[in-house]
Amino acid sequence: MNMPMPEAYQYPPRQSYLPQRSSSFMPTTNLSHRRNQSNRIITIERPRPEDETKGFVPVSPDSDDENDYFTNSEPASPVTSSYPSQQSYQQQPSYQQQQQPYQQQQYQQPSYQQPLYQQPQYPPVQPQFPSYPQFPSYQPSMPSMPTQPSFVSYPSDTSFPADKQTVTHTDQPEPTEPAEPAEETVDYSFLSVLSTAFIKAVKGLENVRELWCGNEYSESFTGAEAVTILRHLLKDEYTESCYLIVANTLMRNQVFSPTQYNQRSLISNIVYNSDDTYFLDEEEHDVPTGIITILTPCYSRACREDPSGCYVNRCPHRHDAQEEIKDESEGRHSSKMINIPEGGWLVPHEAWASRIEKEVLVTIPREEIARQEIINEIIYSEEKFLSDLTILHEVIVAGIIENKVIEEPRMDEFIRKVFNNYEELLQMSSALFNDLMELQHRYDRECIPKIGEILVRHFTFFEKPFVAYSPEAQSAKYLAEIELKNNPDFAHFIESIETHKRTSRLNFWHYLLSPVTRMQRYPLLMEALLKKTPEDHEDYPYVQGSKEIIKSIASKADVAAIAIKARLSITMLRDSITFKQGEQYDLQLDDPIRHLYYRGILKRRNNAMDVTDKTDIHVFVFDHVLVLAKLRKTTAGEEYRVWRKPIHIRMLSLPPAQGTAILIYRLGPRGGDIYPFFCSTPKEKEECVKAIENAKAALHSKHGNMDAFSLNPLDDTNFRYSNTGQSTGTATKINCSVPYVSITGEHVIAIGTETGVFHKVQGSEGPVRRIIQCDSVIQLAVMEKHHILIVLTEKALRAYPLDALTAKNKAKAVDQLQVEIGSHVNFFQVGFCNNRDMLVYKVRKNTTSVFTALEPYLDLRDPVNEKHLTYRPSIFGSTRPHYLKWFKKYKDFYVGAEASNIHFLKAKVNVVCERGFEVIDPENLTVGRDIPDPEDPQFNFVTRHPEPLKPLAMYRINDKFLLCYDKFAFYVNNRNGSLVNRDPRRSPILCEWEGCPTHVLFASPYIVAIDPQFIEIRYADSGELAQIIPGENIRLAYYNGTGEKTIIHVVMNHNQKPDIQALFHLSLNNIRSHPRREKF
Q: % helix / strand / coil in the chain, to the nearest 5?
């Protein structure tokens, strides 16, 4: 896990000034603090100093009012320097030597001759309790009740407490002046009362000041403002610790919440008396109810509002009791944020002014003191950040590896995705802190003249590491949460992080998100430092430069975080989408380019329409598919059960609909499907329709705004469907076609129909000419080198001389030119195999398929062979086959199954049969193999498919075979026929067809599936849908994929004249680069 530093980020070797450190660190970002007698940092108020000659301590470097920036304090005690001299720095161990091993149980104190930083010794404080008057004991006696009214009197010299005094009654009481009405008191120990008053006070803040995050959080405030409001409401009767306890009570009862910028409160669930921001929920909610016990009166009747005058241990008026309550509260919540190492910090973590002697402090301008306080925080907060990264590395990541809480195959990937490049951040923070600590030691108890140059030098290298880590932290957190749910070992390990001796009760999320919070803090620190640095100061340009650099980095991280957040929402959807039993669809939501355009709810009914299933449908419009699902709530959370088969964006259209109705049409077999829905408002309908249009446009733009194939018409005027059902002339059905070049150089098309073969010159608008009159032409082919036309009808397979057949002035009748090859032929193929041209045709016999391979040996265009054009029957009745005039027999072979097609490989032939694909070597008919192997369990998805599968085609692509069925396609290896697994997490299936294709063709780099309703074009390497060509009654007329260019002819109904058939050339456009999801 040792990640090397980038080449550009190489610092010269230096002696590190980090001694061995303790294991606990306290992350904090308070800019306002000072040290009390226990040497702890606390937040203080900002009263205006009455005597400016006294010592002062800065409160907040971000204050714009210099007069409010200081407050009176007692002069700091003189402290002698305890840091080693500059010469002794060179003798310190390196940073790596200073790091404590992960297994070490106890840290050692740094081996300095004197402590790195001595705390001043304060004399013990003896509390001075004021004296109170002693009251005589009071034991009233109950007089007997007289029959006549009388009054009870007590000696006038007896003194009673105010709440024990009684009034004498007489028969005729003396008139007295009316008493003034008592001031109404509010009992803020009731949580509802205090919450209402607090909310009202926060809303009033908008009229007197504007917070920097006010645009995003309209009712926002800082932690310091919350403490001030509570102090005002509670009449300043309690200590600051109690105010924080009350503030935490309000926050944990959802009265207010931390903003997204207040990461430490989000992590720790604690309110801080600082500039951390919080906000009220804009939605109205009922205020919580309950009793805040710390605000209730003391149960002792003799209690006085005095810091130490009550004997009750938990009296709210006793400050020591308040501190005890605070300590217990921190033990449950906030103490986990106290992270002070046993050996102390390497730099002081207290106010800079508290370390300066009074005589020196009074001579320093206030502006410079404010500036030094910010520099001080930059230095010690960097140490806290470094300590967090060190614990992340040594405790968390190392613990995961050593304890093997993640399975070994997933370990490296999990650490890479969750912890990203944290090691690079660790090295960079260490280098920065070394320079900052050296700077502070050099100017110990003095003003540091410059810090900006160091910051600029280091910030220059921050962009790549922080932009790589911060945006991905959201995804890292989600991945860790998923692992927590599914992995008990990991959950137990994460739980043990808080109890580890080095983490001081800080949880796993604090360390994982520490770089994010640090990056958010850097710009604030730079902004505060720039405010307190005069423009004519020598450090000003460096500070300004560091501010611009870090703001640019933070801005880029925010932009990247937006994309990551969108990607994370898709990932969360992926994990919550489920399917019905027996259904499974590859939605490809793992693809990093996925984009979610819209999510909403579609209703299945309106006021005038009702349906059986009244459940609302949730719609998700992605960049490639539309998903319709139903929301289900389970014990594990919410899930979306897919309602109908997901609709690819290319297969989707929106027919016009009135009002809020929306019709979703899915192009598919047998006319497709249409789903009627209703939107709640016209605006929702507009948003949904616009999202679908945007997804379609983006998908088209992604593929270069150019379709993969174009339809070029070959004939769309001559052939009509017969109205009588009987084919006559050109009123007939087109079954097949074949292109060729005539003897005159013209590009000609032969078109096979139910009434014969027609001839047409490509590009001409004239009528067609019938060259062969016969019934039901099923298949045509041309053997170009030999100029032979092969024609298959329902009754026979024949061959014709191409030039003589197409000549305008035929010297001989057609029946005198033809050569009979065979009868009862099902199909044939012409191609090139084993360095020879072949004609292979199939004849069915019982349950087997018998094939005959013929090899032509004459070029009928050669005048020398003209004598072979005329058939002369033998007078002796020869039984020699007629076709042997032009062909010689090459081989006969058979397959023990019904075959539907045949493909030529380089030296073998591939037979497509009902059980799969069989590869046959014509030179060695005893050797063959079945693909896929029916005995191989990895092909169970084929052999055990719930529906019968029909093999359609098999193509050799590079070193693999593409096997195409009528439901899907997948790859197998050429050598051993094993299944090609593209991704262990995904199905081995390359693609599932949107329709029910009758033919699948290969035209590199695409595969083309022809369904009667549309042509489906996909990338051969990824299976991604590239184009959809809709039509009606689409049929394959011709395919030749063995030449330099693939030729595909399709025929379909004319889109404007349904009674006319249109013959098209499906021509491949310029091949271009395209986004590939996966390469083999």
A: 30, 25, 45
What is the C-alpha to C-alpha distance for residues 414 and 406, in angstroms, rounded to an integer? 8
- Would you say 236 and 180 are in contact if contact means Cβ atoms under 8 Å apart? no
Q: 817: which residues sit within 8 A by CB, 6+ positions away?
A: 800, 801, 804, 805, 869
Amino acid at residue number 311: Y
For 1061, left (φ over 0), alpha (ψ -120 to 50), or beta? Answer: beta
897 CB-side CA count, 13 A? 13
Q: Which of 23-37, 746-760, 947-961 has the lowest mean pLDDT?
A: 23-37
pLDDT for the residue 25? 36
Helix (H) or strand (E) holding 1027: strand 1025-1030
Give the whole-angstrom CA distance, residue 874 versus residue 1019: 56
Please give the Cα distance from 662 to 679 (Å, whole number): 7
Using an 8 Å Cβ cutoff, are 689 and 1050 in contact? no
Would you state the structure tokens that stand for residue 367, as one six-digit string?
Answer: 């502006």
| Residue 150, SS3 per DSSP | coil
Lowest mean pLDDT among 164-173, 192-201, 628-637: 164-173
User: What pTM was computed for the model?
Assistant: 0.60
Which pLDDT does position 184 carry in this prediction?
A: 59
- Condensed to tens digits (0 to 9), the pLDDT of residues 69-92 reads 333 333 333 333 333 333 333 333
For the stretch 122-142, pLDDT in tens is 333 333 333 333 333 333 333
Q: Give the residues across from 1035 on adjacent strands.
A: 1051
- Residue 978, pLDDT > 80, answer yes
Assess contact for 275 and 60: CB atoms under 8 A. Answer: yes
Q: Where are the beta strands (DSSP E) in 184-280?
A: 220-222, 257-258, 277-279
Q: Which residues, other chains included, contact 902 with Cβ-Cβ below 8 Å and sequence gap of 6+?
A: 827, 829, 840, 842, 851, 909, 910, 911, 912
Phi and psi based region of residue 705 (left: phi greater than 0; alpha: psi -120 to 50; beta: remaining)? left
Q: Is residue 710 within a helix (H) or strand (E), and if so which, with residue range?
A: strand 709-715
In this predicted model, what pLDDT tens digit does every residue of 566-616 receive, in sequence order? 888 888 888 889 888 877 788 888 888 888 999 999 988 755 555 545 678
For the segment 453-495, what is each residue's pLDDT rounded down to a tens digit? 999 999 999 999 999 999 898 889 999 998 998 899 999 999 9
Select from 237, 238, 222, 202 the least CA-distant residue to 271: 222
Comparing CA positions, the residue from 752, 795, 786 lying closest to residue 772 is 752
Q: At what angle do helices 514-531 and 366-391 cross, to 10 degrees?
A: 170
DSSP letter at 395 equals I
